[in-house]
Amino acid sequence: MHNSILSSLTTLLGKDKILSGDELKQRYHHIWHMDKPLKAKAIALPRTTDEVASILKACHTQNQSVIVYGGLTNLVGSTETTGNEVIISMEKMTSIEEVDDQSRTMTVQAGVLLENIQNAAKAKDLLFPLNFGAKGTAQIGGAISTNAGGLQVFRFGMTRNLVLGLEVVLADGTIISSLKKIIKDNSGYDLKQLFIGSEGTLGVITKAVLKLVEAPKSRNSAFVAFNEYDKVVAFLKFIDSGLAGTLSGFEVIWNNTFQTMTSPPAAMKPPLPYDYNYYVLLESLGSDQKRDQQKLQELLEIALENNLILDAALAHTKSDLDWFWQIREDVHVLVAQCNNDQHFDISLPIPLIGNMVEQISEEVKDLPEVEKIFAFGHIADGNIHFIVGKSEESPALIKQINDIIYLPLQSIGGSVSAEHGIGLHKKKYLPICRTPAELQLMKNLKQMMDPKGILNPGKIIS
Ligand SMILES: Cc1cc2nc3c(=O)[nH]c(=O)nc-3n(C[C@H](O)[C@H](O)[C@H](O)COP(=O)(O)OP(=O)(O)OC[C@H]3O[C@@H](n4cnc5c(N)ncnc54)[C@H](O)[C@@H]3O)c2cc1C
Fold first, then answer.
1. Which of 215, 246, 301, 383 is the most exposed place for a label (fewest CB within 10 A)?
2. What pLDDT sits at residue 357?
3. Three-state DSSP class for 167?
4. Running along the chain, 462 residues long, what does each successive block of 10 average in pLDDT?
């Protein structure tokens, strides 16, 4: 079987597009595990949608399981292998086919890096408003397959709001192509949404039409500080209404996380003293740099006078902006402080976040093996991240921490995944935020679209 799929793929694509044996030793399943050689039968490196289709047709015929590799930055184990899979790596499908500044769309192959998409939009005075720390490595196909969120969801929505058309190859090699540039299309089921966020379990995304917006003419940011969580929520309402639609980011960082992000070995220095419980980094995107900065400053002054906030640092220059956002985006600074790191991205109603983070942090810190817990998040979206560092990596300890963080979400209508997805790591906890009927419908869809179960088997649902 092993040789048979290898020789089929080599015949179909040519030897230079298939890696196997020792060639896999330099490959890995995740950017944070580059020291662990990849266990797989082969890696296929297609250049075109037709090549992806022929790979899948061969794998389908031979009941061969397949995992698609994008930038390998996911945080839920969704690119882990058992050794029996064929990997389809999208790294050679990097063409930006068109930037249409009239329709405000970009048509791309799935392997284009998110950062290259942002830059191509910028070159035409447009903005692709999907942004997160891994933008230099994550591919657009990976972002679509995980329905990535990030730093500007509050204003522009998740990835699914930014995709107008998709080309996808189904498990049996059928190509479904709907690369329309239109915003409104109610002609029956919105099929592309099935593939967005399905982590490579329903099809392989080969191309996308992305929605762009006019590039903002101004960008302003400030760090503000609080001691009470209720004031964070009150300030969110105040600043959102005061900025009248231009607020695009509202990130909260808890005190110990802020200290770690802004003191050695981290390269960044703190823009505010370490005296406060909560720090918010906010961003507004507008039309006039001077006027918008003045407006933000006025609003911060009113908030200070009314004791809504305790302290503030406004970014006055481009280098201040870069400094502030580098603090927030460089999550690796936190990961580097953790042994056996465990990551969380839960969703819950905004007013409940303060108490819930306190309660969870206390319970997690009480476990003797836990060394660190960092909390921060896209709070205007109700989305909190935890990174937990611990002295050991036993399945029992992982479960204990998962239980503390996930189980309370059921009764408050939360979600075990705000934006990272389910993959392998959260599979057992899916019933916390999905009803039995929803889970059954998901299984039915998977069975219908991939009856042989060859696409990313074991991920999301069994
Ligand atoms: C430092 C850092 C910061 C991050 N910040 C955020 C954040 O703020 N918000 C957020 O949402 N995520 C964040 N992430 C998680 C991650 O970057 C996203 O999930 C990203 O979208 C994954 O893209 P990728 O190309 O790396 O996909 P991969 O990790 O390669 O793959 C992810 C999943 O998609 C599937 N897949 C990949 N390409 C395709 C394709 N073409 N067709 C079908 N399936 C495919 C894979 O099989 C896998 O199941 C962060 C990660 C890191 C390391």
1. 301
2. 97
3. strand
4. 83 96 95 94 98 98 98 97 97 98 98 98 97 95 97 94 98 97 95 98 98 97 98 98 95 98 96 98 96 97 98 97 95 94 96 97 98 96 97 96 97 96 96 96 98 98 89
Beta strand pairing call for 66-69 and 86-89? parallel
Q: Which residues of 28-45 are buried (b: 16+ CB within 10 A; e: fewer)?
A: bbbeeeeeeebebbbbbb
Residue whose CA is at the smallest distance from ligand 1 atom 7: 150
Q: Which fold has domain 96-214?
A: 3.30.465
Give distance in angstroms: CA of 72 to centre of ligand 1: 6
CATH topology of domain 338-420+430-445: Alpha-Beta Plaits (3.30.70)
Q: What is the pLDDT of residue 1?
A: 44
Q: What is the pLDDT of residue 139?
A: 98
Q: Which atom of ligand 1 is nearest to the CA of 75?
A: 15
pLDDT of residue 448: 98
Please name which of 166, 139, 175, 140 lies closest in space to residue 54, comparing C-alpha atoms.
175
Q: Whose CA is nearest to atom 52 of ligand 1?
A: 134
Report pLDDT for 462. Answer: 85
pTM (2 decimals)? 0.94
Q: Whose CA is nearest to atom 23 of ligand 1?
A: 142
The CATH architecture one would assign to domain 2-91 is 2-Layer Sandwich (3.30)
Question: Using a 6 Å CB cutoff, which residues line ligand 1?
Answer: 67-75, 78-79, 90, 110, 132-134, 138-139, 141-143, 145-146, 148-150, 199-200, 204-205, 331-332, 419-420, 456
- For residue 132, give the ligand 1 atom closest to its CA: 8
Nearest atom of ligand 1 to the alpha carbon of 31: 53
Q: 224 CB contacts (<8 Å, ≥6 apart)?
A: 235, 279, 280, 282, 300, 303, 309, 311, 312, 313
Atom of ligand 1 nearest to the CA of 114: 25
Question: Which of 3.90.1150.10, 3.30.70.2190, 3.40.50.1700, 3.40.50.1110 would CATH assign to domain 218-332?
Answer: 3.30.70.2190
Using most ligand atoms within 8 A of CB, pick from 95, 146, 345 the residue to mutate for ligand 1: 146
Q: Which atom of ligand 1 is nearest to the CA of 195?
A: 43
Q: Where are the domains of the chain?
A: 2-91, 96-214, 218-332, 338-420+430-445
Core vs surface per residue 280-303: b (16+ CB within 10 A) or e = bbbbbbbeeeeebbebbeebbeeb
Atom number in ligand 1 closest to CA 143: 21
* pLDDT value of position 402: 97
Tell me how far CA of residue 367 lies from CA of 31, 260, 388, 389, 403, in angstroms. 29, 21, 11, 11, 13
- Tell me, yes or no, if the two domains 2-91 and 218-332 fold the same way: no
Q: How far is the CA of 89 from the centre of ligand 1 (A)?
A: 13
